[in-house]
Amino acid sequence: MTHEPGIITPYTRRSFLRRSVGALGAAAIAGALDPAKFAHGAATSEELKIALVGCGGRGSGAVLDAMSTLNQGPLKLVAVADVFEDRLKGAVNNFKTKHPKSVDVPQDRQFLGFDAYKQAISAADVVILTTPPGFRPMMFEEAVRQGKHVFMEKPVATDAAGIRQVLAAAAEAKKKGLKVGVGLQRHHSKGYQETIKRLQDGAIGDLVSMRAYWNGATPWVNPRAKLETKAGRKLTEMEYQMRNWYYFTWICGDHICEQHIHNLDVINWAKGFKYPVRAQGLGGAEVRVGMDYGEIFDHHAVEFEYEDGARCFSYCRHIVGCWNSVSEHAQGTKGTSEIGRNVITPKDGEAWRYRGGERNAYEQEHSDLYDAIRNNKDYNEAENGAMSTMTAILGRMATYSGQMVEMEKALKSEISIFPKNLAWDAEMPVKPGADGNYPRAIPGKTKV
Ligand SMILES: NC(=O)c1ccc[n+]([C@@H]2O[C@H](COP(=O)([O-])OP(=O)(O)OC[C@H]3O[C@@H](n4cnc5c(N)ncnc54)[C@H](O)[C@@H]3O)[C@@H](O)[C@H]2O)c1
Fold first, then answer.
1. Are the C-beta atoms of 249 and 285 separated by less than 8 Å?
2. Statement to judge: residues 144 and 260 lie in one domain
3. 131-162 pLDDT per residue, tens
4. pLDDT of residue 402
5. Cα of 438 to ligand 1 centre, how many Å?
6. Which residue owns the Cα nearest ligand 1 atom 25?
7. Residues 139 and 240 in one domain
8. Looking at the domain assignment, is residue 86 inside a domain?
9. Which CATH number fits the domain that encloses residue 405?
10. Is 87 close to ligand 1, i.e. is its CB under 6 Å away?
C-alpha cells in the first residue's frame, strides 16, 4: 500500500477522446448491473462488485482499504484493468493471496489496453480509478455514464479541460444518485475534521493568512535506459512516458498537482470549501534535471488569493537535502493553527489539540463511501476534488507562465496538454530534443 507522508496513520499519530462504449458490445453491457439497483441503498448482506482500473501501488492499496470494510457487508473484486500486463498480474496475485474469498478475477475479466477501463467498469457496481491522473476525467465520465459508484484517486485531472469534464460528470452523478469518493483522505481523518470544524466555527477568528507545504524528497524515477534494457528493445515515446509518468505534465500534472494538492485542499476546506480567485508564483527545475526527469519542475512557490483577500502561501519542492515539511498552517485574526498537527492556539485562551483516536484515513474513506452506498446517503466528493485539483493547476499555470492567473479564466482554458490519440505509437504532445532532454516551461514566455 503506498501511503504518502503527512497523514496520521492508525493509532500513532477527458475525454478529448469522447468515445462511446460502442466497442464494448451488447453482451458486456448486458452483464452490467442495473444502475437503479442501489438507488435505495444496498442491503448490508448484499454483495457489491468492485472493479479496479489502474493496478499500481495505490490501486492495490485502495482495494485492500475497500476490503477493510468487509464488516459492513460483502464485497468482491470482479474485474481489473491496466495498460501493462506486468502491473495487472502483480496486483491480481497480491489480492488472491491477501483476500482469496473476496477476489474473483478470472482471465476473461482481466482487461488490458487503453480501452480496458470500459469493460472493467461494466462488470462492477463500484469502480476504483487509480491510474495516473491524466486519465481520470474520461474514466470518471465513463463510470458515471454506466451508472457506477466511484472511488477515484486525487488529483482528478491535469488540465482545465479535464476539470470541466469531471465537474460535468460530478453533476450527472448527483442526478443519478451515485456515490463518489475522492482520495483526499485527510477529509476522513478525525484529527483534521475536529480541527477544521473548530476553525470554521471561528476558534481563531477569520483566517487571513495560510501556509501549505509539500517539501520532500524526489519520488521514483524510471530511466529510459533501464526500461529499454529490461524490455530488450526500444520503447515508443508513449510507452516510455507512461512508464515514467511522474515527470510528464499531461499525465501527472506536475508535483504541485500530484502531491501538493493534499495541502492546498486542506486550506480550501479550512476556508469553508472556498477556492482561490487568482494566483501568481515562481518555480523551475534547479537540481532535478536531465533526460530522465521529463518536463516537470522541482519547486514551485505560489501566492494564492481568496475572494475575501486572504492569502495562502504554498511551497512544494522535490529536492534532496533541504528543509522538509508536509503540513498546513493558518493565521487568523484571533490566533493560529498548525492544522496538520491538529493544534489550535488562540491569542486569548488555552491552546487546543486533538487527542482522540484516529482510524487509518485511507480505510476510513472507503468505510464512509460504502456506508453511503449501503445506506443511500448523499455522498459526492467529486466537486471539491475537482476544485482542489484546479487550485493546484492554477498554481502550476502561474509558475509555468510567471503571470498572475485568474481562476475564472484558468477554468475556461482551452489549451490542451493531453495526447490527441491514445495508442502506443501516438504522436506525443511533448518530445525530447536532440540531446534527449525535454523542454520545460519558461516563465515569462510559456502560455497557459
Ligand atoms: N491519496 C494518496 O495518498 C495517494 C497515494 C499514492 C498515490 N495516489 C494517487 O494514485 C494514483 C496512482 O498512483 P500510483 O502511485 O498507484 O501509480 P502507479 O504507477 O503505481 O500505478 C498506476 C497504474 O495505472 C496503470 N495505468 C496507467 N495508465 C492507464 C490507463 N490508461 N488505463 C489503465 N491503467 C493505466 C499503470 O500501468 C499502473 O499500473 C495517482 O493519481 C496518485 O496521485 C494517491
1. no
2. no
3. 999 999 999 999 999 999 999 999 999 999 99
4. 98
5. 23
6. 54
7. no
8. yes
9. 3.30.360.10
10. yes
15 vs 99, more confident = 99
Whether residue 21 has pLDDT greater than 90: no
Atom of ligand 1 nearest to the CA of 259: 43
The reply to whether ligand 1 has any atom less than 6 angstroms from the CB of 237 is no
Q: In sequence order, which residues have a C-beta less than 8 Å from that of residue 151 and are 6 or more positions away?
A: 62, 66, 126, 127, 128, 129, 180, 181, 182, 183, 365, 366, 369
Write down the pLDDT at residue 190: 97
* Domain count for the chain: 2
Q: Is the CB of 133 under 6 A from ligand 1?
A: yes
Q: Which residue has the cell 512508464?
A: 243
Return the pLDDT at 287: 97
Q: Would you state the pLDDT for residue 416?
A: 85
Ligand 1 centroid – CA 56 distance (Å): 5
Query: What SS3 state is found at 308?
Result: coil
In this prediction, residues 208-215 reach a mean pLDDT of 98
Nearest CA, atom 8, ligand 1? 58
Distance 153 CA to ligand 1 centre (A): 8
Instruction: Report how far ligand 1's centroid is from the alpha carbon of 57 (Å).
Output: 7
State which residues form the domain around 62: 21-186
Regarding beta strands 311-318 and 207-216, do their DSSP bridges make them parallel or antiparallel, or are they unpaired?
Answer: parallel
Residue 43 pLDDT level (bands cut at 50, 70, 90)? low
Measured in Å, residue 320 CA sits from the centre of ligand 1 at 23
Contact 389, 268 (CB under 8 A): no
